[in-house]
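Re: that chain you flagged

S.,

Sorry for the slow reply, it's been a week of failed gels. I finally had a moment to sit down with the sequence you sent. For the record, here it is as I used it:
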Amino acid sequence: MKRLILVATVAATALATAHARAEDIVIGAIYPLTGNAAQVGLDAKAAYEVEADIINTTHAAIPMVMGKGGGLDKLGGAKIKLIFADSQNDPQKARAEAERLITQEHAIAIIGSYTSATAATISQVTERYEVPYMSADNSSPSLNQRGLKWFFRTSPHDEMFSAAMFNFFTEIGQKTGHKVKSVALFYEDSIFGSDSSNVQRKLAADQKIDVAADVKYRANSPSLSAEAQKLKAANADVILPSSYTSDAILILKAMAEIGYKPKAIMAQAAGFQEQAFLTGAGDLAEGAMSRSSFALDATKSRPAIAPVNALYKAKNNKDLNDNTSRDVTALAVLADAINRAGSAKPEDIRKALTETNIKGSDTIMPWAGVKFDETGQNTLGTPVIQQVKGGVYHTIWPFDVAVMDPVWNVGQ
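Prediction finished late last night. Pasting the structure tokens below so you have them in one place:
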């Protein structure tokens, strides 16, 4: 009799465990879904929903991490459930939403969040509650330098991005004979703008490039006419903007209004990589360059790009870009860690994240791979440089993966 009771108890426990394993895995995603950055947030939402569908549903396998579908096999086929929260691009609102997602929605991880200012507050909350924060598209170098245990970032940060820009300057100078001798810094008054300009200032000094103008401005200003005049007066070889979408459009229009056509623009992505920028700036965007995490045209070396982009385009009527590709990748990496952990416990997921080692060819990104250091930073994220031609960004560097030659007007 005791044996029968024991067998029944074990069977019931196994059944309960199997049922528990098949429960949804709740991940909170915090983005601006209303306000001046709402389109970025809505695009991110679409990207996450596409990647969740790739993970959760049954379909032909896609050649990328978590691309086989069918849910999390080590958790009994459990599905990723995304709960979105609106930060309104406000760091304090983001902080409150992170706490709500963890305490009320029982999110076992948070992902986000577009601006570095919101990432700074969200990651403070996740650190306090001891749940992983996956920084998908925040680029401030200071974010992973605060001694946080629960912070992880798949994307390169602005030191890595800016180093790529200046390496490009060196190589294009050697290739064409037209070296960059001066730059103009143009950046918003935020953690993103300040950190970006600090790195660029240092790199310029290291390469003995003159900083002809150092222009800081208030984000979402109604006018950038005065700033455009300063940039025109400096007439640097390259303007280095660190700006979000509305300001990126505004500065190009302000420069056009005073008849100033820069020799070259090399943007710190952000707003310059958004379709809304390309549409809003129109012909003024032609020739602009930007660092990027993503190369839509790298389909030969990254075969997952075509099917993932097709799914995203069917859902959102636009191609993946620098930001949305990072969102797809961040969720895939987080889901992979959860699956390898075979657990929904945050500590187990954190440990699995520290053990991540994904080949670049198993992602949609032109990176060497994904592997986190002790600060939670992916050390294998390798940026590219792109340039607008015909209203579309094309990869121009590194030269061995470029699909077109750069249009380079410096020194000519």
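What I noticed first: Residues 1-21 have pLDDT under 50 and may be disordered.

Talk soon,
D.
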